[in-house]
Amino acid sequence: MMEKDLRSRRLMNDQMTPEDLERINRLVADTKRFLEMYATLPYVRDEFNEDSEAFLAKHHLDVDPEEMKFLVNDEYAQERKRLDEDPDAIDLLPEAAFRFRQFLANKFAARDMMIDKYCKPSNPRMIKWRERQMNRCLAGVGGVNKAFVHCPLAIELDLGCSVGCDFCGLGAPKLQKICRYTEENAAMFRQILADAHRIIGDAAGFGTLYLATEPLDNPDYELFEEDFVKEFRFIPQITTAVADRDIERTRRLVHKLYSSAGFIHRFTLRSVEMAEKIFAKFTPMELLRVELLPMFPEAPTFVPFTVVGGQAKHVKEEDVREGDPGTICCADGFVINMAEKSIRLITPCHMTDKFPNGVAEPVKRYFESADECAKIMEEIIEEYMITDIPDEEPLRLYPYLERCETMYGDSLQSRFGGMIFALDKLSRPYAKRVIELLQDGTWNKHEIVRIVTGEYDANPENVFWMLNQFWKQGYIYDSRLFGSIQA
Ligand code: SF4
């Protein structure tokens, strides 16, 4: 490797020349395209293995065949692992591997910023509520929750979806109604955005203009998007399963990502033919900030996560594969539907018979005007986003939290992975008794405190404090969100 190349690995973007930046972007884009083709099209492995140079030339990918082999061939698996795990070994990584790793690290860092900062509402009740749901999800959907951004707002522009994917994780119904950008609807939409901005804060600008809908079903999507950008100065992310429906329209949407502030878009690939079309119609540079999600079984990396939504007629938890979060829902807050003028509160959960889409939806209300929509939002925050443990309700742990022996001793462990709460490490002598009473599920907070202070030399304030910690951690069942436990 040339000395200059090695030195450039330590430079920040603003220390590099435009030519170097251009070269690195191109390298990352071509590497990404190669990896996506390899992961998506069933015949690419054989073609590449047979003649790697011819394969790369055919697809106009300006990358070193040996560097691509390093990234994908099994014979380099040990070496990849060794270099990946050794922070001092970055100079030994081929340049394509180094730059692509850097690209992914930046993307994950941006996602983590969204989780910790950008998607955090400014409303104090919402902040606490969202934090509690994020903690709950760590056990309630498993470790994958760490990748969920928990954005506090999604706006659906239609009722239902025209695509009908059999893998739909949100059980979207058939397309029934589209909200067109009429003068009246546009005015209401702009007012709703402004109210959401006021109530939720800047975090509302990291929401989306779709949820259980296909954004490109709406012929006026771009006009709504423009209003969104005017309000929040940020392009809302789209996930579309019909990027191939009107290539030039899709191209214009993607190009906007590079000219305004925006993060990424996602294309769901429904079939080999669709993947081939996307690769043929878009250059690697155009799709640098577009994630491709192959959702067809012929794709070498296809994993049938997540068996929720339309497929799950009768959900048996034991059928869900290990590590599957049982939900694809990244939103945690309000969903406003412009087509039917409804507003609902949602929060992700592991799918069950009661919540087959892996989403709890404790409340849905209808509005006639933007003012009414804002009023309902504020009411929902007040009624459903409670910050303190309910006074009179019996308290109990979520049913997926099981008491068992783990490598840390006596523990609470989630059936869905994600967390282990080591009870032996708790310093208060009555901590396990509090857990036992929560396992009983018959005592309210005052009764728990009374029982514990009767049995131990414990200060009531400290027992309340402990219960509050368990509440904040999302261990204690919230009947406002999930209904009564018997239901
Ligand atoms: S996955 Fe998206 S495009 Fe497909 S049916 Fe569901 S909402 Fe529609």
Topology:
Elements: H1 3-8, H2 18-40, H3 44-50, H4 52-58, H5 65-72, H6 77-85, H7 95-118, H8 124-140, E1 151-156, E2 158-159, E3 177-178, H9 183-200, H10 221-232, E4 239-240, H11 247-259, E5 265-269, H12 272-281, E6 290-294, E7 331-337, E8 342-348, E9 359-366, H13 370-384, E10 401-406, E11 409-414, E12 420-422, H14 431-440, H15 445-455, H16 460-472, H17 479-482
Parallel strand pairs: 1-7, 4-5, 5-6
Antiparallel strand pairs: 2-3, 7-8, 8-9, 10-11, 11-12
Helix pairs in contact: 2-7, 3-4, 9-10, 9-13, 15-16
Bound molecules: iron/sulfur cluster (SF4).
- Rg, rounded, reads 25 Å
Decide which structural class fits the backbone. alpha/beta
Q: Classify the helix fraction into a percent range.
A: 40-55%
Number of strands: 12
- The CATH architecture of the largest domain is Alpha-Beta Barrel
How far the N terminus sits from the C terminus, by CA atoms, comes to: 65 Å
The CATH class of the largest domain, by name, is: Alpha Beta
Provide the low-confidence segments as ranges: 309-315
Mean pLDDT: 90
Query: What percentage of the residues does DSSP assign to strands (E)?
Result: 5-15%
- Output the strand order for the largest sheet: 1-7-8-9
Bound molecules: iron/sulfur cluster
Biggest sheet statistics = 4 strands, mixed
Give the total of domains: 3
CATH topology of the largest domain: TIM Barrel
Identify the overall geometry. Answer: globular
